[in-house]
Amino acid sequence: MAVRTYATGRLGSIALALLATTVSATLAARQRRSDRAAQLYARRLELEELAIRRKALAHQQRMHWELLSRAIDDPSLASVIDTYDKSIPAERRRQFFYANAWYAYLFHLYRAGVLDRDELYAHLREFFQSQIFREYWEASKGQRATLSPSSDEARIGRMVDKLVMDLDEADTDEWWVVGNPPSD
């Protein structure tokens, strides 16, 4: 009888150990699923936030264009936002508003991830072949000076300043090969 009790007790201990192992494995599997579900939920929230941000940027760009186009069409409205030197003729200042609209368009394409930095650089290199665009850039340096130095817009502005300097110093007519976009 003592042998049977011992064997039964030993089998019961083994069964209990197997049960504990199974429960532990089941709990660990549930925890992994729970962790994965939490990761997926966090990623979904990140993607939703990115989509909302992109929509907001697109809306801001549309509003910027709408406001600038009104200023371009109506000089009385342009005077509200015209911070350019008043010695610059009104027609040229209107052209500056248009140049600003193009610059803002390219900048927003970059921020939205439609253009990468190299593509932005290439487009800007082309735009700065225009004397009016160069004059706009020079006339707007005071506006750029008010930006936070760490902002995307200030960083891109510094990149453009370097591009303009490279274009001015280039001793080639092949403007499309001048300069290199800075690496991030």
Mean pLDDT: 85
- What is the terminal-to-terminal distance? 80 Å
Q: Low-confidence spans: pLDDT under 50, at least 5 residues?
A: none
Q: Classify the helix fraction into a percent range.
A: over 70%
Secondary structure: number of strands = 0
**Alpha-beta content class:** mainly alpha
Biggest sheet descriptor = none
Strand content: under 5%
The geometry reads as: elongated
What is the C-alpha radius of gyration, as a whole number of Å?
32 Å
Strand and helix order: HHHHHHH
Given the structure, what is the number of helices? 7
How would you sum up this structure, described in words?
This protein has 184 residues and is mainly α. The chain has seven helices and no strands. The protein has helices spanning 2-73, 75-81, 90-111, 117-127, 131-139, 141-145, 152-169. The protein starts with a helix and ends in a 15-residue tail after the last helix. The model has no long low-confidence stretch (mean pLDDT 85).
